[in-house]
Design brief:
single chain; mainly alpha; 5 helices
Length: 100
Amino acid sequence: MRRKMEHLREEREQIRQLRNNLESRLKVILPDDIGAALMDGVVLCHLANHIRPRSVASIHVPSPAVPKLSMAKCRRNVENFLDACKKLGVSQVIVICLTT
């Protein structure tokens, strides 16, 4: 029980650090549910472009008329992010972990 609590504390701290890092680098405010914020791939694609401009050529983003992306567009964003990771030299092992 104690190990599990310690693990949860560490996980919360890592998520807090991730949030702070993304918000400061991309100059955005992420919603409370960071998982949902990353799920559509928009923030991830912007992060890749922040690291290397134009590494993701096309990013599907929500619009006022269509505020929620289709699953196909979300999937394409995430695929574009993973492709950019490979181009940036991110280890194949890490890319595989990101996809599972």
